[in-house]
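Protein in question kept underneath.
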Amino acid sequence: MSGLRLGGAADRGDLASFLGRAVALDPAALARVRVAGERVTAWVRLPFGVLVSRTVSGSADPADVTVGAADLLTALDPPPRDAARPPPPDGPAGDAVRWPGRRDVEWRAALPPAAGWQRLDSVPADVLRALVRAGRDALRAVPAGAAAAAGESLLDHESLTVSGAGQTAVLPLRVLSALTRMGFLGGDPSADVVLVSAAGGWTRLAGAYGSAYQHTTPTLGLTPR
């Protein structure tokens, strides 16, 4: 059957949480769903220009589909099934999720490579939280009439520099903000870290519950040491 199969209730809940946060930030967001082996990754580009992803166990047919994030969220949480109606022939009710209307041609964002990532370093999640909090406090101090321009400037502020594996990644506040606003950081302040990796002009920040990406160029964001 054409559609999405998830590994279990936890995977379904994780994907729904990811989509719900993305839709809260942008009700018109698109979700691109791709399969690799027995893993399904959903990608969303946030309204402030950061690509984010969440990977869960499962499979899908076709293996690369773009749909409305809100539509897929609705499909993941259908109305209760009539107990008198038999489950579908392909498994227990709720196992298979039919694709909502496909919107493949609307996806415009590039995706990072699937392999070749090099670990640069790990950063305590509390460091990222503090940087995002400082940016938020700075924005609150801006006069209301200048908030929009100041907000964009703050998002572009180079807030974190990470070096390792012969490379240096310079990350703007917008990428750090994506991790916090999407709920990707874990709940244990003493053990929670964000892994920073690089591959093919991309930098990835992987938190406990998802990843955010910065697409770099030779003159911005990622340079040899």
Q: What stands out?
A: Residues 79-94 have pLDDT under 50 and may be disordered. The helical segments are 9-25, 69-76, 125-140, 147-155, 173-181. The CA atoms of residues 15 and 54 lie 7 Å apart.
